[in-house]
Amino acid sequence: MRARDLLAAFPTVTADAPVIEAARLLAEQDLPGLIVVDDDGLPVSILAGTQVLALAVPRYCQDDPALARVVDEKHADAFLSSLAGRTVRQAVPPRPRELPVTDPDATVLELAALMARTRTPLVAVVEQGRLLGAVTLQALMDRVVPS
Which domain of life is it from (predicted)? Predict the structure, then answer.
């Protein structure tokens, strides 16, 4: 089985897009992440849902989880409001060590290794300078885990 067999059309965002809109897209479509593209439509990063959370959750709550418990429910429920005015660029690492991008001929083991190495739940698939879509962790696991 190859990447082309698991490939699905996948939404993209630009680095300058509002991160709250990216979060809305993640939630509405139940996505693990989004492909961040440049002006030519080619992948430059992956925005995982966890990166949106890392930008939204106050640093003191990340550093000391006990502090998150002292925030009242009303304010805790509104933590995403801190994303107002912020962009996708602020949520993704400035220079990823390795971009989770492959070609349609990649095997499932190559896809799994790339996901594991880059710690991302999706891999962008590019052929001849054109983004074809992505393979998600869910699609990969659905195919490789025995029933």
Answer: Bacteria
